[in-house]
Structure prediction request, 228 residues.
Amino acid sequence: GAVVSQHPSWVICKSGTSVKIECRSLDFQATTMFWYRQFPKQSLMLMATSNEGSKATYEQGVEKDKFLINHASLTLSTLTVTSAHPEDSSFYICSAREGGLGPLYEQYFGPGTRLTVT
Amino acid sequence: QKEVEQNSGPLSVPEGAIASLNCTYSDRGSQSFFWYRQYSGKSPELIMFIYSNGDKEDGRFTAQLNKASQYVSLLIRDSQPSDSATYLCAVRTGGFKTIFGAGTRLFVKA
Prediction:
């Protein structure tokens, strides 16, 4: 089956620093990758959608200059949290889609990255 | 009104019973519907999807969809303690964006 990996699985950083999270599709080419954020006991909130080689599309309320997304290849997308603050502490999950766009496309989820900003 | 609504629970059922999880959605143009299971600290895993009105069965799981009522449900038969998790309802809109509900926590008591 399709596998999506994320690195690191958890990270602790100091307020004001930047953190990069990698998302890789290991055995398929991901035409689209999605970045989600999940706070405790809350749902997954879509942050942005990125297509390989294109600029990411950010959801309303998500600061594109704070959450930098780069989808440089069909197997790698990165999310950089710039000037992190404690309120950015969350569980970040990426998801990848293979193939054409339609109502039944399957999303493959990565294992998530737990970010704690101190 | 939230786009995808679920009862947060917790829903507690005894082992062997049927667990019934419900979800309503607001976008009538939604085309496909998904149920995910999420264990604490883990990412979601797909249980099943449905896109036609009616029932769809897969092992101990049955998804039910009623587009007129904008309602989708998941039944888990012969519930096991290992089924204890948060169940997320997800709806794919006409723009092919997937919107998640907040999830229902299920506890299956041994």
